[in-house]
Amino acid sequence: MKTNKKQILKDGQFGFLLILPSLLLLAMIVIFPVIHVCILSFMNDAGGKFVWIGFRNYKSILFDDPKFWAYFLNSIKYVVFGIGSAFIVGLIVALSLNTITRFKGISRTIALWAWAVPPVIASLMWKWLLNDTNGALNYLLMQAGILKNPVPWLSLPTGTMLILSQVHAWTSIPFIMVILLAGLQTIPADLYEVASIDGAGSLQKFKIITFPLLRPSILTSVMISAIFAFRTFDIVFTLTGGGPGESTEMLVTYVYNMAFVFVRLGYAAALSVLMVIISMLMVFLFVTIIPTKDLS
Amino acid sequence: MKIRLNRAKTRSKAAAVIVLIVYFVFNLFPIYWIFVTSLKTDAEVYTPQPTFIPKHPTLENYKTIYTTRPYMRYTTNTILIAIGSTMSCIAFGAIAAYGFSRFKFAGNKGLRYIFLASRVFPPISLIIPIFMMIGWLKLYDTIIAQIIVNTYMWLPFFIWINISFFDTIPKEIDQAAQIDGCTRMQSFFRIAFPLALPGIAASSIITFLGTWNEFLYNLILGPTPRAKNLSVGASDFIADMFVSWNQMAAGAIIACIPAFIFVIFFQRYIVTGLTSGSVKG
Amino acid sequence: MKKNLIFILVAVAFVVPAFATGTTETPAAQSYATIQWSPIAERITAETYQLPKGAKEAIAAEGTKKLVIYNWGDLSFDPATVENGKMFTQLTGVEIEFVGTPDEQMMPKLQPLFMAKSDAVDIVPLDATNYRAFTSRDWLMQVDMLWDEAALNEFQTGARNLIINGHHYSTPQVARVTDIMYYRPSMLKAAGYTNPPATLDEFVEMTKKLTLDKNKDGSIDQWGYAFRASGVLDGAEIVKSIALLYGVNPDNVNGKVKYNAPEVVRAVDFLVKLRNEYKVVPPGVTAYQHGDVADFFLSGNVAIVIDPTYLYARCMESSIKDDFGVALAPRAKKDGPSTVIQNWNGWGISTYSKNKAAALVFLDMYRSYPAQVREFVLENNEVLLKKAYQHPEAKKIGYSSVLSQITDTVIDVYPGQGEVYKAVIAEFQNALIGKKTPQAAMDDAQKQIDKIMGY
After folding, report:
1. Domain range A65-289, its CATH number among 3.90.960.10, 1.10.3720.10, 3.30.300.350, 1.10.132.30
2. Chains near C, with 3+ CB pairs < 8 A?
3. Residue B278 lies in a domain
4. pTM for the predicted model, two decimal places
């Protein structure tokens, strides 16, 4: 490859130079806190003073603490049901927004509205809406004849986790939709033309063209949303506080309670580190299940 | 043949419109509820059954929040923080994503994951050390601190999203430009960046809205109106023992507006056609 | 090249922590030690508050211009606090910057400040959820100089519960009475009653008649009663308050915390029956906390609630101001105990504050007669200073007659309380939804409590 200008740096070095500013920025901000948390996780401060105890926190959490596993399972439920439905809805909405030709701008903006509401307010409002005494949702469902009696959505013995995951889905749909919409833009329109001429129907076009080429966006949007969902705290905390009983307690509320209610910072730090490990496992899981080979 | 294609197109457009209307009705109902509540008087908020159209609508709540609280300050803070963070993410992140996508260097794959991993720590567990660092730099309660922290929050995702967008641009285009005499940086600015605009625009919107809504770090690092944002400011309406619903709802509606303006402006860059056809050329 | 970069990176990573020596702490100007607090009792019960001798000089010596004080909840709902702040500024010339914070955000906001030994906060608000945690970590300054025996006698006996290992770390701000009964006379009348229930048996009978499907659409739109079984304190407090009616304080059964004592289980059983057998409370009680039940009362969804005294002012400003009454919460039986819980809030000074003289004066001032009267009169917050109840304005408060019927109050603040309450709330909810029997639920709670308390 001949180039006219002299290159001082080889290609590889140039590439590294491009990522260097970000690398430095992140390093400066992140390294100290991460080390701090890791060190804290090896300490015990139950009595108010910090004492080094090695891996004992981790051993207690993994082998002595049934709450950890129960809450872990709840977190998984939250993520799977929340991101699952958010993805399906997000995909359908992104496809629809991609198809319409008029009012594109305003439709896209309105579709993102749920995300512009401050989370504190959104959680409190949802709590009110799901209320069984004067909540709007029960009222409307009863008016429509679907329900005879108000359902205490936030006090169900087993279904409350599902409800919470759908509230989370409501907040996630805009994020997934935006990425998928941008991804749809990178699919050349001619491919669809060619397929139509070849007699393909909408469903076939989706299966053969859209879905495969959308894989990178799907991977990105679902994976990042899953990471967020795993860490989302205010929805559960505001709506049920972990109840009824412990049926909606999640790992992230466990960390919060450990750090700020019980003030056991060492244990909380160890929980956080475990949460990070689990999140990275999730990332690897996604990256292997949704391969994004070069499709040309 | 053309008529058949056109009819199919019209049918799918109609289906899309129906889907969107259904989606808007169900998905935006809570927002309608917030809007309606913001127009209610105190008395009407507390009725045995929910009401969907205020009987005595009032703009009193909007007036109150601006006169009794530094809401203007929260709004300008939030705008500054969001724009600042988004600009830094674009500046740092676009070139980084390009670097990851285009160039081979040792650790390319590994560093991508490390970047992502830096974001995987639950913010709750990092606040104490980050707070300490911000304190040492004497940036407590400043907007700069918020911009730094929010850039950290969104940069890894910004980069990750845009790597795959840059990946869709064929390398031949860059090389063609360089044959024509561009340096690598020039080919980035003139060719790759414009072609990757859908991804850049989408991730800018994400960064902006994510920063707009950021709660925990603003709570800890910006406790006073000097750097407080709208998301934390919403909790001003939470008294010790109860919530002032109508004022909070008015606050929510106000909080959405600038975000809206930003989105309307940026979403127009999420368009197709920039890459299609470029391969044939 | 790679190796150099790694070296640079590592160096960068440690440049920032190199500042970790932190701001060199100037030895605390012990100027506050020169303030003469005696005679305390006289000063704090005087009609107008006057600065103790040496206060102004000590504040000037520390160069204090401003105090940063965190407050539970936004200040616009705390007129008494604002007025008291103004009084302080008038007397000392020191400005106050109040930082209003909702309950759930207080700990996340304050903890980093303390862990970083920051001087960005001077005075913190205290309650049962954070007091012991702060003191066990030496985050609060000892304020023994503000108290003596005579001063303590001016306060209700609950004030003594706040002494830890013989030392004082706070002065009281308020101590809200948590259980007075609010009812809707019109709803009672429609059901054939003129007076609110006086015993629990009457209560059950009346709430059954007050739970109605008024518009005959198949679902209940008026409930007899509602309580809060969620939150950080609420759920445990309702159990405790009923147990107190049966004569037992679960936080102090012969010096131990025991939530599976027979009377406590009986209390849980009573509440569970209200939901599942008599069906006089909405099923969603397991998620109610804070102002939820108050909101329902104001909306007309519930006929009777038992809530703290702050609700009185809210009722007076609402559309039901001419249709609500207050009374003593029903006793277990006629002439049974009517012990109620008092929720204590206090002020404490950060160990790392650089303005200790001014902070001490604030604490001293806030528990004095004029300041405490303001809390009671302007915000309807009960206080621990006994003399405040003799103020003419105090006698005019709508529910003061109810207060005088209360036989006894309790204030319990002990380490691990937050964890204990969390366990109790979770198991209480399990009993409410029918997952466990009350006995089994409380036994499970007690197992966790034993672990937490180290029994």
Report:
1. 1.10.3720.10
2. A, B
3. no
4. 0.86
